[in-house]
Amino acid sequence: MLIVFYFLVLLVVIFFFGRWFLAIGYSGVPYVGINLHALKEGMEMAKIFSGETIVDLGSGDGRILIAAAKQGAQVIGYEINPLLVWLTRWRLHKYKNARVICRDIRQADLSGVDVVFVYGIPGLMPWIKNFVDRFHHSGLRVISFGFQIPGYTAVEQRGLARLYRFD
Fold this sequence. Notes:
- The structure is a single chain.
- This protein is α/β, with parallel strands linked by helices.
- The protein has one domain (32-166): Rossmann fold, CATH 3.40.50.150.
- It has helices at 2-21, 36-46, 63-70, 82-91, 125-135, and strands at 53-57, 74-79, 98-102, 115-118, 140-145, 156-158, 161-166.
- The longest helix is centred in the N-terminal third of the chain and has 20 residues, at 2-21.
- It is globular, with a radius of gyration of 17 Å.
């Protein structure tokens, strides 16, 4: 009987947590950590100033959030995977200017944001364009890792990182 109980617990864990790792969750975007070289290039292009507000759509393990928090920015990550949210919160505990929200990126609030980071997949990028269109304002910078945002022209590209600026 105990074996049946453990088997049922395992099925529940796989159902609730495994779907995020298998990329069959609501967002359909698998976790892929950004490499440090691409992170450095993206941060240099973003030119983050202390006090600016930074959002990372699909913040994963929080690498981008930590790098921006070290520069004095107010950082907010949106991540749907509860295990990655827990890991990021643990990694961000010493930064009072940083937080991660367990929420799908489609529910993110970009009002008043200075820089947006995204590492999406090709099928998500048209949605990212429409989402940014709803919130963009003069001075907004968007850093996209890996894939171009359709309808926008990058003003700079270094390796995986593309900078889009709205002036």
